[in-house]
Amino acid sequence: MIKKIIKIAFFILAALLVIQLVRVQLREEAGVAQPEGMSRIRTEDVEIRTVRKTHRYSGSLEGIRQAMLYPPVPGIVKEKLKQPGDTVRKDEAVLLIDRYEEGFEYEYSRLRSPIAGRLLEIVPGIGERVSPQQGVASVADTSVMKVTVHVPEEEALLVRQGQEAFIRVKALEGQVFTGRVAEIEPALDRMTMRRKVRLRVENPGDMLRPSMVCSVDLVVDRAENAKTVPLISVVERQGKEGLFIIDSRDYARWKPVRVILKGDKYAALEGDFSTGDRVAVEGHYGLVPDRKVEITD
To answer: Cβ distance 142 to 63 under 8 Å?
Structure first.
């Protein structure tokens, strides 16, 4: 008798479980949300982009050519023909020097710039004595700039001639300047175990100035025209990386992916998903696959 009752109870429980599973399946097929535990998800669309991976260094800008000016004769500064910040032509005079010697008369000597560029500084004032051994002014060609960075040993082999870089300076917030690797020292510095790398930096509008401190984001890898998502959307499940794609009925579908490159902000991926698909970027870390979600702005 007891065995009969146990069997009947077992069949009743099994039937109830089957009914509940059928109800859940019907609710999902009809697009009805689960009443409890619905995840709130923010999404972004899959887009075609170029993904870049960069390493950041710091340096100080210089003119592509710079020159220190030395007086041709000893004497006294008589007149400043140019002021710091002025542009100068090659062989243009920037100072008049009075070669004063008692009992003699000389024409004023002209201190000329050996290069075209911008006058950075004049050290002596009017009436001060100068000599040929004393650098008294400096000029820089700022049409193009250069910057030197020191790359650690473990990153040195990633640097190549012509490599792209993005340069930013604090004084010009929001501005990004482009550069290219121009010179690479053949050996590491034995003291610092770093490699010296010089970059050529474009200077549109002549906004950059010598001695400006800058950050240099050197592009060490890139993926062109790839399907991309924000880095935060790539999650790992059971040892595999993937995405939660939100379908047209707002169900979260797990899609394994192959990562081509993880850049600074985005990841370039391959997998069973398309441009324009909605991918979960927030609220998805504890998400259960094939559940309906609530989409937030």
So the answer is: yes
Please provide the CATH number assigned to the domain covering 71-135.
Answer: 2.40.50.100
Residue owning tokens 């008049």: 96
Cα–Cα distance between 43 and 189 in angstroms, integer?
Answer: 48
- Residues of the chain within CATH 2.40.420.20 domain(s) are 33-50+224-296
d(CA 297, CA 295): 7
* Averaged pLDDT for residues 103-113: 85
Local confidence band at 16 (pLDDT 50, 70, 90 cut-offs): low
Query: Poorest-confidence range of 13-22, 27-36, 121-130, 216-225?
Result: 27-36
CATH entry, 33-50+224-296, from 1.10.10.10, 1.10.10.200, 2.30.29.30, 2.40.420.20: 2.40.420.20
What's the average model confidence in pLDDT over 228-238? 94
pLDDT recorded at residue 105: 72
C-beta neighbour count of 252 within 10 angstroms: 23
Residues 6+ apart with CB under 8 A from 50: 222, 223, 224, 225, 226
